[in-house]
Amino acid sequence: MAQPVWSDPVPLALGTAPAPEYGSGSLADLLPTLAAGMDVPGATATIPELTPADRNCVFLIDGLGWEQIKAHPDEAPYLHSLLGSSRGGTGRPLTAGFPATTATSLASVGTGLRPARTACPATPSATRTPAR
Question: Would you kindly state where each structural domain of the chain is located, as residue ranges?
Answer without folding.
Answer: 58-94, 96-132
